[in-house]
Amino acid sequence: MEKIVVGYQGEHGTFSEIAVHEYYKNHEFESKSYKNFVDILNDLELGVLDTALLPVENTTTGIIYRTYDLLASRDVYAIGEQNVRIQENLIGIPGSNIDDIVEVYSHPEALGQCEKFFLKHPKMKSIPYQDTAKSVDYIKQCNDPTKAALASYLAAEYYDCSILEENVNDNELNTTRFLCVCKGEKEVKDANKISMYFVVNHEPGALYEVIKIFAEHNLNMLKLESRPLKGRLFEYCFYIDFDGNLNNPVVKDAILKVKNHCVEMKCLGTYRKAKED
Predict the structure, then answer these.
(1) DSSP code string of 21-62
(2) Do residue 82 and residue 95 come from a single domain?
(3) Nearest-angstrom CA–CA distance, 158 and 86
(4) Fewest beta carbons within 10 Å, which of 115, 121, 154, 188?
(5) What is the DSSP pairing of strand 147-151 with strand 193-200?
């Protein structure tokens, strides 16, 4: 059996790579890193990749709109979901000591999620860097025991560095949700969650009618997000997640009725919910 070729965004040791490892932990796979989401989806549509793991939502910062916008506009389909706990670790070069650290490098978002840690260590200066994993690569190249980075355990392993203190981020439950996507639509028989994109008719009460349909069909809406439509003045599209399976007659009827109130509608995927820790 051939290995599954999976794409992810970022350097070795990012949380996106961790998502790949966790999602495919029981399969043979080959992972490929990319600088951006567009290149990932291009290779996915060309058949270079079998699947890709893309971040779509974070419990601290919310929905990742650039990912959803791409899912809505490209010939890709979500077939799985993976939650990854974001645990930033203080990482130093081998032999370094936490008491000697004066400079800490990482992505600005990661630094901002570790404010309490820096308050406890006032002599440490936080310095923004391009990427969490790349910051580990940087301190390794510097070979300076006074420099450290904030990144994942996988980045520490990959660059052969030491974890000086684990899980230093403020929110211990900080989690990013990833979708596993493939080219074109694919049936997932045991799916219990659906993601959709739609644009309602530009008339009063259209969104209310859509929400009412879900309520009348007793379908649990998990999320509803709005997004401005490019090139249109104060018009919006919506992204929705809800419980269900596309083969369920109730779900089929609900989608058919929702479509009557929309000018655009696309199923972004149907998949099994990720297991919660």
Answers:
(1) HHHTTTS-EEEEEESSHHHHHHHHHHTS-SEEEEEEEETTTE
(2) no
(3) 17
(4) 115
(5) unpaired
Residue 72, both tokens? 């809505």
Return the structure tokens found at 185.
């639509």
Q: Report the distance separating Cα 24 and Cα 46, nearest Å.
A: 22
Tokens at residue 63, please? Answer: 């929905």
Q: Enter the pTM of the model.
A: 0.88
Residue with tokens 């051939």: 2
Residue 154 is encoded by which pair of tokens?
């996988």
Tokens of 202: 């530009």
Other C-beta atoms within 10 Å of 79: how many? 19
Residue 237 lies in a domain: yes
Tokens standing for residue 90: 């203080």
* 241 DSSP assignment: E
Q: Tell me, what CATH number does 218's domain have?
A: 3.30.70.260
pLDDT in tens, 181-234: 999 999 998 999 999 999 999 888 899 999 999 999 999 999 999 998 887 777
